[in-house]
Amino acid sequence: MDSIQAIQDEIIDEFSEIGDAFDQYSYLVEISAMLDPMPDEKKDKEHLVEGCQSHVWLYVSCVDGAIDIEADSDTYIVKGVLRLLEDMFNGQSPSDVASAEVTFLNKTQITATFDADRQKGIGYVIKDIQKQAAALA
Amino acid sequence: MDIQRVRADFPILTSEINGHELVYLDNAATMQMPEPVLNAVVEHYHTRHANIHRGIHTLSEASTHKVEEVRKQVQRFINAPEAQTVIFTSGTTQSLNFAASGFARSVLKPGDTVLVTAMEHHSNLSPWQDACARTGAGLKIIPITDDGDVEIGAYRKLLEQNSVRVVSVAWVSNVLGTVNPIDLMASMAHDAGAAFVVDAAQGMKHEKIDVQKIGCDFLACSGHKLGAPTGVGVLWGTREWLERLGPVQFGGGMVDHVTYERTTVGDLPFAMEAGTSNISGIVGLGAALDYLETIGIDDIARQEAAVLASAEQMLEEMPGVEVLGHPRNRVGCISFVPQHLACYDVATLLDKLGIAVRSGHHCAEPLMGRYGVNGTVRISPSFYNTTDEIEAVGQGLEKISKVAGKIA
User: Predicted ipTM?
Assistant: First the structure.
């Protein structure tokens, strides 16, 4: 399996080849479809990421020493970002996830055009994932 | 009205956003400022910036004179009987809070009832909830039809309870664009012995305003929906009601006499304007009213109506979107719910095409609940918008629907 950094570099390369901001966001919407649907009963308050303006539900577990993230959102653009985070982190060791430096959001300009509240919200999601991964390490 | 000439007055409209010409359709949130307003504010800071009412020096006198001139201008704009009943506030929210707190302090008691409609902005709901919680009065909601019109029969029934002390209603809904029949509702409230408050945040430039004709007791509005800077607004009330409610904020500038034991308050309007007002904002408000009157309220209303009608037609014909409400009379804005994407996604993608609209609950969460939706996308044109811009929105939505098609 590729390292978190290698996957992150790949995401950055892929985004640099997509045209303008509209196309980049359309791409996020498109890949949102690749996120496994979360059953409604799992979308509870306990798993809602605090501080995120879009609703994001997050489950982080460790299966056979590898991180398994299950996430969903009520907006497709955010779902697309969650899909990228799953690509990067699922299957990696909890300690690697906890210590990873997440740079693709800034390097791809994904968050640059998010409004401030959403930028913060995505930050909370990453922080939450890494905090839970650290606890599982 | 020469639309291109009008557009040239708004420098921000030539901006480029994400590589596209800006299409600004978020005027129900805030309208852009024309050059004369920007100039008036700069001129104020260049030539007469000083605190008002407290100095005898020339700059203070000049600032005071200007603020009082704008007060008279507002009086004329809304046809108030006297300028002293025009209170400068920070905006509609503060104006409505002043009214609600005043009622809580001086009028409401246990068993009394306050009425608002089901389509109110939080600013015309939360302050009344608080007023009721503080006094033991009850808050009741005037229902609306699925089309988004007030149910007048239900309103009549609520008034028949004989306990209603105040009715507070949006002139125009900031979500549905419904124009409420405030003249009729005011007269029905008065017949039942209740006061009538108008939240005019969205109503001010869609027709000539006349508080005496409406027959309301209070009217609240914001400058920034009219082309003035943010942070300035007005609470107008009849002298009788303003004096009965009294001030809800205390401090500098509003007193008659102060001892260590007590404060006696001064006359209107100063009794209601504790602290330093947003002086440059008031100057900007004066310039904005001048500007609107120069263009002409009738022409403004006509242009806005034409652009809104084209938006309505475009949305009704657009597959994959559902227009929220079909009120008998709509001005200012239209909301829709996308069927295959979240409102946030649609507004974000439109932004990437240079189109500014608003998504979310628009500070009207209970109304969203009434319709069973989490939010809407709202298009709110102003008189500087064109039908070509609505066409651009239509093209944008078609492009977005292709994106949505890929995940359907």
Answer: 0.89
